Amino acid sequence: MKHPFLERIARGPVICDGAMGTVLYAHGVSLEYCVEEVNLSNPKLVQEIHRDYMASGAEVVETNTYGANRFHMASHGLEDKVHRVNVRGVKIAREAREIAGLPVFVAGSIGPINRPLEPIGQITYAQAADAFREQAEALLEGGIDLFILETFSNLRELTEAVKVVKNLCGLPIVAQMSFTEDGSTVMGQSPEEIVGALSGLEVDVIGVNCNIGPQLTLDVLQQMMASRPDMIYSAQPNAGFPQMVEGRVVYMTGPDYFADFARSYVEMGVSLIGGCCGTTPDHIRAMARAVGERKTAEPIREAVRVVPKPESPREAAPAMRELSGLGHKLRGKFAISVEIDPPKGINPAKALAGAAMLKERGVDTINIADSPMARVRMGCLAMAYLIEKQVGMETIVHFTCRDRNLMGIQSELMGAHAAGIRNILALTGDPTRLGDYPGATDVFDVDSIGLIGILRRMNEGFDMVGNSIGQQTSFLIGCAANPAHENLGWELERFQRKVAAGAHFVMTQPLYEIETLDRFLEKVSDFDLPILLGILPLQSYRQAEFLHNEVPGIEIPKWARDRMRDAGESAQRAGIEMAQELLLEARDKVAGVYLMPSFGRYEVVAEVIQALEPES
User: Fold this and answer.
1) Does 270 share its domain with 360?
2) Which entry of 31, 126, 196, 466 is 20 to 30 Å from 241 by CA?
3) What element of type H or E holds 82?
């Protein structure tokens, strides 16, 4: 007989649930806590979350066991509880199903071990297989209906897990890989390679989950389905890219946007549709209603956000000192800066050529990002050194607290100063769990405010604990601000703390209308800090929708998105014109502009700044 899950999915699209960790986090469970252990310490909360997803229309709920393997549990001192956590996770989900009284399938969730495997790490694939076997046996004992193996970025690791499960039982297997924004896995495998390997193992459903949002997930699935249209496919994307709001990780992509993509997934033939990090019962409810397969109910209970109260701002710092060439420029002339991302490999040729071209077009400084979105790139300090020495342009280095402890931060800053780098934009940085190495370790000994304080102390001639560093540094210290933040009061309070810590200039997130800038300038008029206005010229309507819905910190007004839509094939021209219009409106209100080219199209931002040239 055919398994009931396979019979159901053959009849039409099936809605899966969304994130468990995100909702637990919203209920006050710390990001640093082992969320799988909540199966033991607060099973009622886990059960209520399962019931919320069922009420929202989910026909498949995943057990809270994603990281319940011996390696992950050992990092929390819980390796002796692997069996209990997995069995209890299944029982909680089954109890929720019994209470809900709905025909819901309970899927045993297994994730990667999230530790480096051979030959990079010390853990062998045989040891990983033993860990998967231990977890799978416990899930089977608990009574699951199927397996979902998810968020794997290493194809060989996933194939080992699939083989283990197949040797244990004949339950259906959903096997899902995680991709980067480039459309390949962290290990470099293409969607076609993934499909070829997994179809050869005769898994029942092949899919994409985590890391990327709805739009990029759709792109990857299109490639998968083109290679093997006879397979069954699944999609469980993240709710876009996350951002830090009031000290908490928040995903900005809303339920309505997910609903639109649910329709797109169904139209292209995807059979299992749900969500991953950042998605909630509201997202699943919207998707289920869009698909039209299930009636939905009201949530069991509302999630309660626990938000730490920010500290009171300190007194404003003295006005900016003229510390670098950029510092002099900001005090008198309109400064033009352009962002260049370091390469993902070891060849800096494209970035150097781009910087040289921008120098010829009148750009003053080059911004160097520090592995943005927690994706591995060439080091920002090395890239800045190459541009300053080989191109002869001053740089602004985006320096984050993510990858360096207090010793590393100060050591690298001293080295940067010795190499001639003077301009530093102090940033907290995106958590590594959100990038292409989710098993990597975050540091965050300090945040951006603490980093500004360290830079200020170095300018006074001391490290952060008061030891002399021999002489004063001359860093120009920048801070970031988001004038379009939905909680502008919180943003302004944090801005005041950055100023008090010692910031000399400000760089804004990308803006698209002058009214947003004017409101911000009115609020910060008491601070004598030069402001560089962020402008990201839009390339297409699709990009505008993606940035607005999936990228944290970017708000694109509806009129601007409509203008890009109406422009059709002339969308890139419309994007350039909008950027030029904003630039001219803001020219007399800010100290300069900070341009962000999309997809490395430096010629586009070069055209934008032509608007500043006097008419002949």
Assistant:
1) no
2) 196
3) helix 82-100
Residue 333, number of CB atoms within 10 A of its CB: 11
What CATH number corresponds to the domain at position 341?
3.20.20.220
Q: How many domains does the chain have?
A: 2
The answer on 375 and 287 residing in a single domain is no
| Strand partners for 420 | none
What residue numbers bound the domain in which 484 lies?
A: 325-532+590-602
With contact defined as beta carbons under 8 Å apart, do 115 and 439 qualify? Answer: yes
pTM of the model: 0.79
Inside any domain, residue 613: no
173 & 107 share domain: yes
Contacts 24+ apart (CB under 8 A), 538-544: 538/564, 538/571, 538/572, 538/574, 538/575, 538/578, 538/579, 538/598, 539/571, 539/572, 539/575, 539/598, 539/599, 539/601, 539/604, 540/564, 540/571, 540/572, 540/575, 541/565, 541/567, 541/571, 542/215, 543/598
% helix, strand, coil for the chain, step of 5: 45, 15, 40
Dist CA 28 CA 26 (whole Å): 5
Q: What residues form DSSP beta bridges with 595?
A: 338, 535
Q: What percentage of the chain has pLDDT greater than the value 90?
A: 77
Q: How many residues does the chain have?
A: 616
Nearest to 545 by CA among 535, 529, 560, 528: 560
> What's the one-letter identity of residue 434?
L
